[in-house]
Amino acid sequence: MNSPVTPQAPVGLPSPSRRPSLPGPAGARTVQAAFAFGLAALNLRIAVASLSPVLTEVQRDEHLSSFGGGALSTVPVVCFGAFAFLAPRLTRRFGPHRLLWCALLALAGGIVLRSVPGVLALFGGTLIAGAAIAVGNVLMPQLIKHDFAGRAGLMLGCYSLALSGGAALAAGVVVPLESATGWGWRQVLALGAVPALVAALARLPELLVPDRLSPDRRSPDRRRDQAERAGTDPAAPALRALWRDRTAWAVTLYMGLQSLGYYAILSWLPTLLQDHGMSDSQAGWMLSFSSFPGMAASFAAPWLQQRLRPAFVAPLASGLLCATGFVGLFTSPVSGAYVWMTALGLGQGLAIGLALGYIVARSPDAHHTGQLSTMAQGAGYLIACLGPLGLGLLHSLSGGWSLPVAVLLAVLVAQTAAAFGASRDRHVLAS
């Protein structure tokens, strides 16, 4: 990887030299900031992963077809892409730390609304939750580059670990909670609002430092932001310039294609296993189980990205592991489920860790990171939304799972090809 570059202040982020500090010892402030960051990251997959183990119940109660279930699973991923492009504007308006706090509150509200009876509330709450997560998705790499510049690799690993951990927690506890409490899926899914509110509470100390949350309108950084929006600052990288950059596109395609496979499996794996005779609780557990090797792989991804040479080895290993899992689901999904889920978890966990790492590594400073994060996650998740919807449609048309899994294997080939450009040791917009 390139040697660390001192980050410039990105849009909406005050420069480190003029940011006031939170009260208390420096070590305690760092631990508190990292803890609040981790809690926020933990919530960025709970609302999505908690739905798939009970998707069959939701379809039955709300009279949704396989296509309707796929559409419901697709709504958050579409939001991840569409609302990502609003994040830079909202960041300039509110500041990144306050915006993340608002997003967590919106996420909690969306989760609660999703549990209200009726298809409109189901889809509306899912849309609100997806929009809130989209904002968090874009902000996280930017905050890592800026707030934890000296520990970017460690925080990237922790971020990826929290994403996988949130998915594992959500997928693993929903069905057991139904059995233990006697509640329906609505009440159990509504509990997902609790960790979002806890994360918002943990971020309250950030609100005590106004300059850290919102840029000074009189500052040079603010004037620079205004010049960029007006198109008069040639030194400031505009998002539109990244659309012509090959490295940015390689990172975007890798992010989008690995997300397509991840969300397709996240949405439909329990249903696939149930259709092959596995019980509901066991199918939900298998999805949760796959997250545990995924957590280890995603945490190790930044280390592997830095040390494995040639750089393409890590994404190639990820592709081979995912291929093993897909082939297993194609041939004997139930009898070898633990083997396939271990391989798939390792492969997908490594892929998301690498994708997030490429966003940070391919940008020279926090401002570029914010722009590349917007492109990679905005366009990338719009690509990824084809996964849940496409798998549901292919399943409805074919009446089985062989064709959907075969298509996932084809997507995996394209994902591995995109890794050639994404893993190259160069920055975006480099001359």
In short:
The protein is mainly α and 431 residues long.
Task: Throw out a few tags for this protein.
75% helix, disordered N terminus, 431 residues
Describe the protein:
The chain has 431 residues and is an all-alpha fold. It has a single domain, classed as Growth Hormone, Chain: A, CATH 1.20.1250.20. Helices cover 75% and strands 0% of the residues. It contains 20 helices and no strands. The protein has helices at 26-42, 46-49, 55-62, 66-82, 87-94, 96-114, 119-147, 152-181, 185-190, 193-202, 210-213, 220-230, 239-242, 246-275, 280-307, 313-331, 337-361, 366-384, 386-398, 402-422. Helix 6 runs antiparallel to helix 10. The longest helix is centred in the middle third of the chain and has 30 residues, at 152-181. It starts with 25 loop residues before the first helix and ends in a 9-residue tail after the last helix. Mean pLDDT is 81; it is low at 1-25 and 211-236.
